[in-house]
Amino acid sequence: MARSNVETLIRMESFKENFKFIAQTNTAERNSFTLGLNAFTDWTADEIDHHTGLLPEEDADKVSSRYDFDPIPDTEQYFPLNNDKYDSWDWTKHYVVSRAKNQGRCGSCYAFAFVGMLEANYAIRYGTKQDISEQQFVDCSALFGCRGGNFIPCFNYMKSKYWYTQLARHYPYTAVAQLCPTSHPTGINLGEKLYKRVPSYDEEAMKILLRKYGPIYISFNVGNRANESLLLTNISMKFNAYSTGVFDVPGCSEQPRLNHAMLLVGYGHDSTTGLDYWKVKNSWGQTWGENGLIRIRRGVNMCGIASNAYYIGSHP
Question: Peptidase C1A papain C-terminal domain: which residues (predicted)?
Fold first, then answer.
């Protein structure tokens, strides 16, 4: 049998399995969200598991020690974390968030989340959008390219370049890790940045910091299928097939492994389900979810969304 025919059969089996799961979940469970067919419906479990790319910080730190970094001054010193008067906020409506891009078959979510934050920060500060290159961080942030990365080495790489970054039109995305070039075309200067972690598990603080500093880089547990955990498999299948609504999977908040990076862009309340939510931009293209975004239940640290988040600001 030809190899292409074998692959076709494998994809047909994956499609049938996922289609059955989507249909059963939508009809048998009272969910606050709906699943649907998308570009990943015929992907294998192994392909799905390699489509994330957020490395644990202890792994990333092994290869990032050659750079120093500057944390932002303590938030409380400048912005007391008191109650926020805003019931909802959405940076996508303020025209500072770029469209949802597509990382392809490369574990580069960390680069897309980081670049999305840089783009929004630049637009807020200068009033104009820029399409920044994700590929430069895949190639040059001293991590593992398409096999994963995280926030701090990306930030350290930016610092090593004196806050100059390349634009996507000059350094386009290929979804393949390449050698970091020894020279770059002239890019744009972002201005010196500082960063700080959002206080862990503090979703009220995260809400305030989102408004004050702009979109936030978040870490998330999207499940995993290469294991014996039915819960992690269930999370993975639901997240990959997410179509619309407020994502809420019982038990996901207790799962410690964060394996996907995304960009937090807003928050609000869904009157249909009665749930508060976070609005998050993914990097799986605009045909996934709600035009490339997902709403995630807020207030319960759903899937670790408030466990390891970062924001950036300009140097005072």
Answer: 85-313
